[in-house]
Predict the 3D structure of the following.
Amino acid sequence: MPKKNSFNYFDALAHLTNYSYELAVLLNNTFSKFEPSKISEKVKAAHTIEHNADVAKHDINNRLVKEFLPPIEREDITSLAQEIDNVSDALEDVLIYIDMFNIKKIRPEAIKFTELLVSCCKSMVLMLEEFKNFKSSKKLHDIVVEINNLEEKGDALYVDSMRKLFQSSKDPIELMCWTEIFHRLEKCADACEDVADIIESTVMKNT
C-alpha cells in the first residue's frame, strides 16, 4: 500500500494544467475586452501565473529525483510536466508579443483563436484529471481525440486568419506583427496537442 503522505504525481500534473487554463482565460479576456493601456498589467499577471506554474513543475521534478518507485516511468512524468509548462509559456508569449509590438487593436480572428485555446486548455485539464484512471478510463481516449480535433481547427483558423490579414492590409509593419502573433497563437494549440500525444503514448506503454 502507498504511504498516506506519498506524493500524487497524477494530481500534481493535473494541477499544472490549471495554470495553462488560467492563462488561456486571461488571454481571451484581454483580447475580447482589449484595452491597450492595460496590456502591461496583463503581461505582469500572466508572468505571475507562469512563474507559479514553473514552481509547481520544479516541485514535481525535485520529488521525482528522490522517488523510489513512481507510478509511471520517470521520463513520462518529466515529459508531461515539461509539455504542460510549454503550453503556459506559449500562452504568456502571445501577451508579451502584443505588448512588444504595441498593438492597439485586436483582429477578430485573434479573438476566435483565444476562444479555441480556452477550449483546448479546458480539455487538457479534463484529460489530466482523467489520466489517473488511464487503465480503466472510458473517457480519456475521447478527450485526446477532442484535443486533436481542436488543434486541427486551430490549423484551419490560422490559414484563414493569415489569408484575411493579407487581404485587408498592405502595411508591412502590421503584416509582420500579426504574422508573428498568429504564429504564436497556433503554437499554443500545437503545444496542447503535444500534451495529448504524450498521454496517448504513455497509456499505450502502460496498458
